[in-house]
Design goal:
255 residues, alpha/beta, Rossmann fold, nine-stranded mixed beta sheet, 8 helices, 11 strands, 30% helix, 26% strand, globular, methyltransferase, methyltransferase activity, tRNA_Adenine-N(6)_MTase
Length: 255
């Protein structure tokens, strides 16, 4: 795919992970480190598990970054990507085609909150769910005037509880949910997970550096799992210089 295939305002980025590329529109929204570490977190669990993971779904996929990285890091046979915003959905479709992944990744243009009603056949059919929901509660924080950024960052039609409810409905028994969010929402996350019977099993805090407080969390939950939460070692984004990525993050980016 050549640059002249791009729509107005879009750019084509080489993101690594083999020779993967991604169409993005900076004016609207570009993926960040949270999407990359979530994909790596889920991939590591898949590779280390004795269970066989074959089918995954990503909720709120944006331009498809998490499914595309998952396709590189794992042997998942089928990954479904769900996105509500039409422009992001269109870019996700083109990104799948660009990276020649149409046989493994399919993209659905739908609101997460409507999945059970519009696509009931998906219920209970996935081994793995990944979710990078909007971090801001509805009405919380400064509202961005750009509608694409507002929907990506603020809860609109589907809030945190809805993401967890739908994840539980989509998972098979003992299927696993992997989510990235803010530490300030940890109580809300655990409360909703218990309510919908996806038990938190592993929690990892992520900090900008060793001197900073965590500003991201990664959580792994198991549908109908037994109550036991394991705290993983923290992940640091930058080293002591606060300019260069840590060795672990470089390894995650495969650099």
């Amino acid at each position: 795919m050549k640059d002249n295939f791009l729509m107005q305002g879009e750019r084509l980025d080489e993101i690594g992970f083999g020779e993967l590329k991604l169409i993005q529109k900076p004016e609207e929204f570009c993926y960040g480190v949270d999407a990359v570490i979530l994909a790596a977190f889920a991939s590591k669990a898949v590779l280390q598990s004795s269970r066989k993971f074959t089918r995954a779904i990503d909720l709120g996929t944006g331009t498809g970054i998490i499914p595309i990285i998952l396709s590189h890091k794992t042997l998942l046979k089928e990954i479904v990507a769900v996105e509500i915003q039409h422009d992001s959905f269109d870019r996700a479709c083109r990104n799948v085609e660009l990276n020649m992944l149409k046989e493994r990744i399919s993209v659905i243009h739908e609101d997460v909150s409507r999945l059970e009603a519009t696509l009931p056949d998906l219920k209970g059919s996935f081994d793995l769910v990944t979710a990078n929901p909007p971090y801001m509660a509805g009405g919380g924080g400064m509202i961005n005037e750009n509608s694409a950024k507002r929907i990506a960052r603020h809860e609109t039609t589907a809030d945190l509880q809805m993401f967890i409810k739908i994840s539980a409905a989509l998972l098979r028994e003992k299927g696993e949910l992997f989510m990235v969010h803010r530490p300030s929402r940890l109580v809300d996350i655990c409360e909703a997970c218990r309510k919908y019977k996806v038990e938190p099993k592993e929690l990892r805090f992520v900090s900008p550096n060793k001197s900073a407080k965590p500003n991201i969390l990664l959580i792994r939950c198991v549908k109908s799992g037994n109550p036991e939460l394991k705290m993983l070692d923290p992940l640091y984004i930058y080293d002591e210089t606060r300019q260069d990525y840590t060795d672990e993050l470089m390894k995650i980016y495969e650099r």
